[in-house]
Amino acid sequence: EAAAARAATLAAGQSVITRDGAWMGPGWARVLRAQGNQVGVLARERDIRQLAEQIEALEATIEERTEQLEDLRTRKFETERQRDDAQRDLYAAHRRLSELAGQLQSQRGKMETARARAEKVGGEIATLVEQLDELQGQTREARGRLDEAVGHMGDREDERRGLENERRELLEAREEARMNAREAADQAHQLALGMESKRAALTSLEQALARLDTQLRQVTMRRDEIDEQLAAGTDPIAELESERQTYLDQRLLVDKQ
Predict the structure, then answer these.
(1) Residues 154, 199: one domain?
(2) Which of 23, 47, 133, 160 could form a disulfide with 149 if both were Cys (CB 3.0 to 4.6 A apart)?
């Protein structure tokens, strides 16, 4: 009965032999009738060969399963390493994003300051232009008075000299106003160049932020995929190999172009 119970649990191709000559396997049984000692020896040799073959098959199966287990452990370690790498990339992207956000805020503040300065210089230029126009009008009036005084040079020499001095002072004031206007215009030009440079830097920072944001989303999605695969107990190696081959194919296409 014990042999029959054991035979019911054997796999296909396996069997047991009892001391009384009963040969059993899963779903079948045979009684060995010894016909002399020679028949018993031959049956025993055959049983030994069968058992040796079964042992050899079991050892091969054990070795195969051991190799599979070691391979699975290696792939699990590699997948966990990739997950850790993705986590580090994610942290680095977060730090870089924070740095660029700070730089962007700083550049915006500088642009606002430059814009306010440009508006102030523009107002100063407008004021200087008004002063220049006023001085030119005064110069014309002084020239008219001078011409009128020239006709009366005999008895009005002192007045002529006074008007000449006034005219000279007005000319000097006009020249100074023109110099101030040129300096203000140069300052406005320099501010405009500075604003253009800061605007280009701001655009570059915004583009870098956009690229980092895209990379951050990609790294986050990849990390989540690896975590889901590890949590579900699936093997992501085949998918990673397929993804690697896709990238290699894309690189070959780019190299051919």
Answers:
(1) yes
(2) 160
With respect to residue 100, please indicate whether it lies within any of the assigned structural domains.
Answer: yes
Chain segment 120-178, per-residue pLDDT in tens: 877 887 887 788 788 788 778 877 776 776 566 555 666 667 777 878 888 887 888 77
d(CA 191, CA 203): 18
Domain assignment of residue 62, yes or no: no
Q: Write out the residue range of the structural domain in which residue 23 sits.
A: 2-53
- In Å, how far are 187, 192, 205 from 198, measured between CA atoms? 16, 10, 10
Predicted confidence (pLDDT) per residue in 183-213, tens digit: 877 877 787 787 788 888 778 777 877 777 7
237 belongs to a structural domain: no
Examine the domain organization and report whether 47 and 99 are in the same domain.
Answer: no
For 117, residues 6+ apart whose C-beta sits below 8 A from its C-beta are 191
Do both 197 and 127 map to the same domain? yes
* Sign, Cα dihedral of 153, 159, 160, 161: positive
Nearest-Å Rg of the Cα atoms of the chain is: 50
pTM of the model: 0.34
- Residues 45 and 95 placed together within one structural domain of the fold: no
Whole-angstrom distance between the N-terminal and C-terminal Cα of the chain?
77
One-letter-per-residue 3-state SS of 126-159: HHHHHHHHHHHHHHHHHHHHHHHHHCCCCCCHHH
Alpha-carbon distances of 117 from 109, 110, 197, rounded to whole Å: 12, 10, 15
> Is 61 within the bounds of a domain?
no
Distance CA 118, CA 180 (A): 16
